[in-house]
Fold this sequence. Notes:
EC number: 2.3.1.-
Structural class: alpha+beta
CATH architecture: 3-Layer(aba) Sandwich
Number of strands: 8
Strand content: 35-45%
Enzyme class: transferase
Order of helices and strands: HEEHHHEEEHEHEE
Keywords: Acyltransferase, Transferase
InterPro entries: Acyl_CoA_acyltransferase, Bact_Acetyltransf, GNAT_dom
Largest sheet: 8 strands, mixed
GO molecular function, one term: acyltransferase activity
Shape: globular
Radius of gyration: 16 Å
Amino acid sequence: MNPEPPDPDERRFRKRGECEIRAARPSDAEAIALIANLPGYRAGTLRLPFQSVEETRQWLDKPASEQLSLVAVLNGQVVGNAGMRRHSGRQIHAGHLGMGVHDDFTGRGIGSALLAALIDTADNWLAIKRLELTVYVDNEPAIRLYEKFGFETEGRLKAFAFRNGEYVDAFTMARVRM
């Protein structure tokens, strides 16, 4: 007797310590919007203040092609999210990622769990050779996290974004599998 094939959502499930990593669902929209509107989370992203639940629900309902969206859940609460988008054409071997953790849950390994799940998917399921990201130069915890996972700084983007009334630089970082 052949066992039933696993549910696709269950195959994407990862549990790292107490933190559950799973595919984001449209029902996560309210929790993700709440996190995106927190000052610490938003300061590390390109998001504008006051992201609506409806705006969040739209990108969860209709994800872009070649996009993976994950959430971190701790004790039933969404405490972080991450995404990866594969490039196309002559850059099909590369992907761009972004992530963030709820202001009250930083420093607990949630970012590590999210990043590990993205890298596992890129390496073992999508054959992505190059993962890219941008990070503000003053976001030292994120930079240390990315370096821990093998990302290297490739350049500095001057006046990359306007944040809190001033222009801020960002590093472009990448992890290239040999």
